Amino acid sequence: MAEQPNQPQQMHNINHKDLQNFVKQILIANNTSPAHAEIVSKCLVSADLRGVDTHGSNRIPSYMERIRQNALDPSAIPTIRQVTPAVAQVDAHNGFGFVAAHEGMKLAISMAQTFGIGMVSVKHSNHFGMSAWLVQQALEADMMSLVFTNSSPALPVWGGKEKLMGVSPIACGAPAGEGRPFILDMAPSIAARGKIYKALRRGEKIPTDWALDKDGGRTDDPAEALQGVMLPMGGPKGSALSVMMDVFSGVLSGSAFAGHVTNPYDPSKPADVGHFLVAIKPDLFMTIEEFKERMDYLYQRVIDSEKMAGVDRIYFPGEIEMITEEKRLAEGIPFATAEIDSLNKEADLVKIEHLKV
Prior knowledge:
By secondary structure, the chain is α+β, with helices and mostly antiparallel strands. The chain has three domains: about 100 residues, Malate/L-lactate/L-sulpholactate dehydrogenase, four-helix barrel (Hypothetical Oxidoreductase Yiak, Chain: A, domain 1, Orthogonal Bundle), CATH 1.10.1530; about 180 residues, 2-Layer Sandwich (Ribosomal Protein S8, Chain: A, domain 1), CATH 3.30.1370.60; about 40 residues, Wheat Germ Agglutinin (Isolectin 2), domain 1 (2-Layer Sandwich), CATH 3.30.60. The chain is built from eleven helices and eleven strands. The strands form three sheets. A seven-stranded mixed sheet has the order 2-3-4-10-5-6-7, with helices on both faces. A two-stranded antiparallel sheet has the order 1-11. The chain has a two-stranded antiparallel sheet with strand order 8-9. A hairpin with a 2-residue loop joins strand 2 and strand 3. Helix 1 runs antiparallel to helix 2. The longest helix is centred in the N-terminal third of the chain and has 19 residues. Keywords: Oxidoreductase. Belongs to the LDH2/MDH2 oxidoreductase family.
C-alpha cells in the first residue's frame, strides 16, 4: 500500500550562502573535487533561489546514495572530442551531469564566439538539475542558447499507458538590454515529476490533473502518482516534445534512450543520460546593441499586453523565477523540517556540521 502524505510541515528560511557551503562540503566529503563541488553546489542553490525547489539542494540525498552504490562517479573528469570546428561531444564518464554540461556549454560558447554557433552533445551523463542554469551560463556570455536533455521514463506516449518517455525539460534563452532576459525552462508534462517528490516530502496533496495512479485513475496522492504515470501537457503535443528530447539528447549522443535512462532516485545502475546544448551569437545579423533593443521592445510589448479578466500582471518567460530569486536572496530559501532533516542525515554520514537554521 502506498505511503500516505504526512501533515504539512513547518518551514524554515535558509541563507543561500550557508546552503551552498553546506552542499559543497557534503560533496567534497563524498569524493567530489572542490572545483566540481563548487559547480554542482552553485547549480543546485541557483534552482533553490529561483523557486525551482524540485531541482535544488533536496536532490543531494539521492545523488549521494547513487555515489555510495557506485551508480555515479563523483571523481569522473569529462573528456572532449572535437568533431568539426563548431561541433563537439563531451563524454561525462558517468560523472555529475552538472560538470559535464557546464563544460559542454562553456565549449559551445567558445565555438559560437568564433563561428557564430556552437553545438555540443553530451553522453554517459547524469541528472543536471534545473536546465535554466545552463541558459544563464550562456546569457552571462551574451549568448542565445538551446538546452535539451532526456530523462528516465515517467510519461506515456500519447495513446499509451506505460511509462516510456521522460518528462525532459526544453530550455532556451536570449539576452536583453534594460529588460528581463528571455529564459524558458519547461517540462513536456503538466507538472515536473520533481513536484510530485516535493509534495511527498512536504506532506502535501497534488492537483488531480498532474498524474494517474498505477490503475489509471486520477489521484491527488503524490505517493500513488509516483507509482503511476505523469500526464503530458497539451495531450499529443507534450508527448511529441518528450520524444523530441529523446531524439536530440539520447539517440544523437549515443546515450540511453527509448525508456532506458535510469531514474535519478534509483541507485542500482548508471543513468546514462544524454544532453544537447547549443550556443548562438545574437549579433550575427545586427549589432548586439540592436538585438538587445529589440528584445527590450518585445519584453515591453509582452508585459504591457491587455490583460484578460482576473489577471493583475503579465510576466515574461522566466520573470517570475527572477523575482523569486531576488526575494530569496534577501529573505532566505524556504525548507520544510523533513527536508532539513534529510540533508542533515547526509551531514552526519560524513561528519560535517549541520545546516544552519
